[in-house]
């Protein structure tokens, strides 16, 4: 077995096993937690390169929560000390006053020794991390922050569809969202082969599902589409080559390529994508996969703006 990129998250047979989310408190509107919904109190820390954080960026934008929850963006190049606020003046976040996201992690749990991840919701008054539980963060933005949504905001997690949405997003997470990482960070051939087959098997099933309907749940945009999009938009730029997900490019899968362009051209999706930060993060921080740290110039990004034809479905 080759040396793994993340040794503590690699099984004995070379499988990438993602660490559990350490901070799982929730911000609620009904007083059922220690963290009440309150405009201006919390700061969402993200990397524009990270697909898990990108979900929260999109949902925050779609729901019109920009004024209610402030946004901190870390440098896409993560070094051995973790995510850095080097995009800000003085290399410190201007609201939290810290140079590294790890400082907020350790202020919350001084014994934390895992990998510091984004997104993270930080309580500004205390500097403590409320949550890095990325699947729940976006659901709570839809359900707990409803009173602060913009007029006409979409209901991305409607109560009557939650069971169906949950059933759709579970295999998407397992085989696609996390599946590309299971391919890229596999440290054994068998582990890679299994992840590769699961990834493209799921993409084939999703192509069939989307062949006759505009979105994953039919004619309405939901949380499920947000979660699939953040992987698809990174696929050709990063996952196809860097993570060896190379049975097909996204541009070679007609249904998914048209679906991804449809979402990209929807306000809140494409205007939150930063391909420069995406490519620089992946190619410059995974030294086991790309020792040269050379960032490729392609692919041609202009094709994302070509007509998709999905609005007739």
From TrEMBL:
The GST C-terminal domain, residue ranges: 147-282
| Residues the record marks as active site | 50 (nucleophile), 181 (proton donor/acceptor)
Write down a Pfam family by its short name.
Answer: GST_C_2
Q: Which Gene3D superfamilies match?
A: 1.20.1050.10, Glutaredoxin (3.40.30.10)
Q: Which UniProt keywords apply?
A: Transferase
Q: Where does glutathione bind?
A: 83, 115-118
Q: Which InterPro entries match?
A: Glutathione-S-Trfase_C-like, Glutathione-S-Trfase_C_sf, Glutathione_S-Trfase, Glutathione_S-Trfase_N, GST_Omega-like_C, GST_Omega/GSH, Thioredoxin-like_sf
**Gene Ontology, cellular component aspect:** cytoplasm
Site (Lowers pKa of active site Cys) location in chain? 239, 282
Q: Which GO terms describe its molecular function?
A: glutathione transferase activity
PROSITE patterns of this UniProt entry? GST_CTER
**Transmembrane in keyword set:** no
Which CDD domains did the record assign?
GST_C_Omega_like
The name this protein goes by in its record = Glutathione S-transferase family protein
Q: Say which species the protein is native to.
A: Solihabitans fulvus
